[in-house]
TrEMBL record, chain A:
PANTHER family named in the record: LYMPHOCYTE ANTIGEN 86 (PTHR20838)
Pfam families, per the entry: E1_DerP2_DerF2
Cited SUPFAM superfamilies: E set domains (SSF81296)
SMART domains: ML
Gene Ontology process terms (BP): innate immune response; nervous system development; positive regulation of lipopolysaccharide-mediated signaling pathway
Domain of life assignment: Eukaryota
The UniProt record lists the keyword Transmembrane: no
MD-2-related lipid-recognition domain ranges (all copies): 38-155
Keyword Iron-sulfur set for record: no
Name of the protein: MD-2-related lipid-recognition domain-containing protein
Alphabetical keyword list: Signal
InterPro entries: Ig_E-set, LY86, ML_dom
Signal peptide positions (record): 1-18
TrEMBL record, chain B:
Signal peptide positions on this chain: 1-24
Cited PANTHER family: CD180 ANTIGEN (PTHR24373:SF356), SLIT RELATED LEUCINE-RICH REPEAT NEURONAL PROTEIN (PTHR24373)
Protein name in UniProt: Disease resistance R13L4/SHOC-2-like LRR domain-containing protein
An example Gene Ontology CC term for this record: extracellular space
């Protein structure tokens, strides 16, 4: 009886919170020995990320483009990255991207409702990527601790 | 007995579930916000019927209104603020606000406007703020409209405008903020700008445009609050831009660039154009200075504030002779190797020096700042300060006016006896995440700082059982001790707090506290905020606090299961308590507290996050309705 009641309670809470289907998993890189996927973990919206090409067995520069629709302005913007390797947490990285007194990037200060597209070149050293699975949780927050974007990245090197 | 408890629990669970099942789901889509309604993000295609006609503020963003007619908002006659961000608006017809005389602010950001009637904004007596950012506008002719004459803010950022033609067809006497950032404007002509000579105190932004040419004299006689040209040097040299600013008077001039924009070099020659600009503050953030010398500063005479953040500097020149009025200098994120390379003798009026996040180890052993007798604010945080044998009397020598010192996030350093003897006027000292070594047989390190009002020692590896730590701080109002530890996790006696009789705010979050001995806080008769969150406390005790008439108590994220209601009943007036994220027992053993919480929502902070522990983990206590034996 007790088990039954708890199960009912669980169903009720799920209904209240209005949990939705997760956003689809997107593939940004799929080669013989390197695969990179991401999926949005934001409750409101998906994000777009694309690579110019996959680094395959060599180091090189990769152009990355990402787009997100702003649900709030970004006078301040903070990046937080948590990396796990084969399920074990290995790195936490935080950095400010936009501060009121130091808007480092062109998009700093853009307003609610604007579509922000950020392009950048990344030097990827293929050898440095460890074999196995890397998972990264990438979160962007603004001055109100409002989540501007959130996505899970999975990198699998074989 | 256990069986009886089980029955009660099951009954209360069932009641909870049934209550949820029979209550119809709420139909109100729009949330009440301060002075209005938030209907954003529901894909609404019209104004909901339940919205009262009297609404003054309406956030209708992220809905779906492809066309706006004069009937769309007709019944909302009291609108003052209307946010229509990202409503996929394409067509805006005539007199859409004919009934909204009081409308002052209209946000249309992110709509791809294809048609805008010349009488769209007829109706409001004084539309003051209009945002048309990222609305696919190509030129000002598109918005030409006689009903915009009283605008104070116009945001045309992130559009496709490549010309300022038609700018002079507007009458903008009241304009305070005019934003053209992230367009493709190439030429700024004297004719185009003439209309802005009549404004005063304007904030004008051409940030990140494709400027090719500014007609010399285009800004002649303009008197702005700020002019932003940052990141607009892709197609033209700084020289050409600055020649075009001849005759400009502005409080702030932004000439920097961005990490994601091309490199910009500012040579002494290219900065000569600034000799014919009058300004109080200039930003050169992220620029490069390939021939940095006294000549670089030749046209900055009279400047009050100089922003050189991340300007790739390793030194400031010795022979700068005209910066005697400079009061604020921002040097964060540069590559200095020694504080003496700032050559601060050039800036005798400096009151504010920010030098955080230097990218190299920063040698600071000498009295390099001793000429700065007027310095009140010094930020040296997020550095790798190399202070030599000890800090800080040698280093802070001469800073007799210093009020605010930030040493947080630095590497380990040894403090001598009374390390702040040279800065006796300090009011705020931030030493968070600074591991300092201090001989406990000496005086307390802050013993000569009677004027200190705020002290941050969070994560500073301080031994909180050292009763002399706070010696001499009789003026202290705010103290942050987060992330330090008490011996055996117990706040033992009042000795430490006797030194800080005026303390109003005490933050002791994440200090590993398991217990607080009676009377530990007795000396703190002025305390109005105590944060004991993120510790290992199992009980709430409020008797330790001198008064419960006006105090905020934070016991969030402890290990409290049962709350003795007698300890919270005494909270009077505006006093509150935060018990969020404790594993509270949601059974009859805690029923008195749960009932008290239900009747005292105003005293419970973060009630939404105040939840049960096992076996009802995560259930809000406000959703728990217990029926226990002996209850009325």
């Amino acid at each position: 009886m007790r088990v039954l009641v708890l199960a009912l309670l669980g169903a009720s809470l799920q209904g209240v919170s209005g949990s939705r289907q997760p956003w689809p998993t997107h593939t940004v890189c799929h080669s013989r020995n390197l695969k990179i996927y991401y999926s949005s973990c934001d409750p409101l919206q998906d994000v777009g990320v694309t690579f110019s090409h996959c680094p395959v067995e060599a180091s090189g520069r990769v152009n990355i483009r990402g787009s997100v629709l702003l649900r709030q302005s970004i006078e301040e913007l903070y990046l937080s990255v948590d990396v796990s390797r084969n399920g074990e947490h290995v790195l936490k990285y935080d950095m400010p991207l936009c501060e009121c007194h130091f808007p480092r990037f062109i998009s700093c200060g853009r307003k609610k409702g604007e579509l922000v597209t950020q392009e950048g070149e990344l030097m990827i050293s293929f050898e440095v990527i460890p074999k196995g699975q890397l998972d990264a949780l990438v979160v962007f927050m603004n001055q109100n601790s409002f989540q501007i974007a959130c996505f899970n990245v999975t990198i699998i090197k074989t | 007995m256990e069986r009886r408890w089980l029955l009660f629990s099951v009954f209360s669970f069932c009641l909870l579930v049934l209550q949820r099942k029979v209550t119809p789901s709420p139909q109100i889509i729009c949330a009440l916000i301060d002075g209005g309604y938030d209907c954003s993000g529901h894909n609404l295609q019209s104004i909901p019927d339940e919205l009262p006609n009297s609404a003054q503020i309406l956030d209708f963003s992220f809905n779906y209104l492809p066309s706006i007619y004069n009937s769309t908002f007709a019944r909302l006659k009291s609108l003052v603020y209307l946010d229509l961000t990202r409503c996929r608006i394409n067509w805006i017809y005539e007199a859409i606000f004919q009934s909204q005389q009081d409308l002052e602010s209209l946000i249309l950001t992110g709509n791809q406007l294809m048609f805008l009637s010349t009488s769209s904004f007829t109706g409001p007596l004084a539309l003051k703020h209009l945002s048309l950012a990222q609305t696919s506008i190509n030129d000002l002719k598109f918005i030409q409209n006689n009903d915009l004459n009283l605008l104070e803010t116009l945001d045309l950022g992130s559009n496709s405008m490549n010309t300022l033609d038609y700018l002079n067809r507007f009458i903008w006497h009241n304009m305070k903020t005019l934003n053209f950032q992230m367009n493709g404007i190439q030429n700024i002509s004297a004719t185009g700008m003439s209309i802005l000579k009549n404004t005063t105190g304007l904030d004008l932004s051409f940030k990140r445009n494709d400027i090719v040419y500014i007609e010399p004299g285009a800004f002649e006689s303009c008197r702005f609050n700020s002019l932003d040209l940052s990141g607009s040097f892709d197609r033209v040299s700084l020289t050409v831009i600055l020649m075009g600013l001849r005759g400009l008077t502005t409080n702030i001039l932004k000439l920097g660039t961005f990490d994601d924009a091309p490199k910009v070099e500012a040579t002494a020659d290219s900065l000569r154009g600034l000799c014919s600009v009058s300004m109080q503050e200039v930003s050169f953030q992220l620029l490069h200075f390939p021939d940095l010398s006294g000549a670089t500063f030749a046209c900055l005479a009279g400047l009050k504030r100089l922003n050189l953040r991340r300007a790739h500097l390793r030194y400031l020149p010795v022979n700068v002779t005209n910066m005697e009025n400079l009061t604020h200098l921002f040097l964060d994120g540069n590559s200095f190797e020694d504080m003496c390379d700032l050559n601060v003798q050039n800036f005798p009026s400096l009151a504010h020096l920010s030098m955080r996040g230097n990218r190299e180890d920063l040698n600071f052993q000498e009295s390099c700042l001793k000429n700065l007798s007027k310095l009140e604010f010094l930020d040296l945080s997020h550095n790798h300060l190399k202070v030599g044998a000890e800090c800080c009397n040698q280093q802070l020598d001469g800073l007799t006016s210093l009020r605010h010192l930030n040493l947080s996030y630095n590497v380990d350093m040894t403090w001598g006896d009374l390390p702040f003897q040279k800065t006796p006027q300090l009011k705020l000292l931030d030493c968070s995440n600074l591991a300092f070594l201090h001989d406990p047989t000496n005086n307390g390190p802050f013993a000569n700082l009677p004027h200190l009002e705020a002290l941050n020692l969070s994560w500073a590896s301080v031994n909180l059982s050292d009763t002399r730590l706070l010696e001499g701080l009789q003026g202290l109002r705010g103290l942050t001790l987060t992330g330090n530890s008490f011996h055996l996790g117990v706040v033992t006696d009042a000795e430490m707090f006797k030194h800080v009789p005026l303390l109003e705010t005490l933050i002791m979050s994440a200090c590993g506290i398991t217990a607080i001995r009676d009377g530990a806080f007795d000396p703190l008769t002025h305390l109005t905020h105590a944060d004991l969150s993120n510790n290992h406390l199992v009980t709430v005790t409020t008797s330790d606090f001198y008064s419960l008439k006006n105090i905020r108590l934070n016991f969030a994220r402890n290990e409290i299961k049962i709350v003795n209601v007698e300890h919270v009943k005494g909270l009077e007036g505006n006093s509150t308590i935060d018990l969020s994220y404790n594993p509270l027992a949601c059974n009859c053993s805690n029923v008195q507290f749960i009932q008290w919480a239900e009747n005292n929502h105003d005293k419970m902070m973060r009630l939404e996050d105040t939840v049960c522990g096992d076996p009802m983990r995560g259930v809000k206590i406000s959703d728990v309705h217990l029926y226990c034996a002996g209850m009325d």
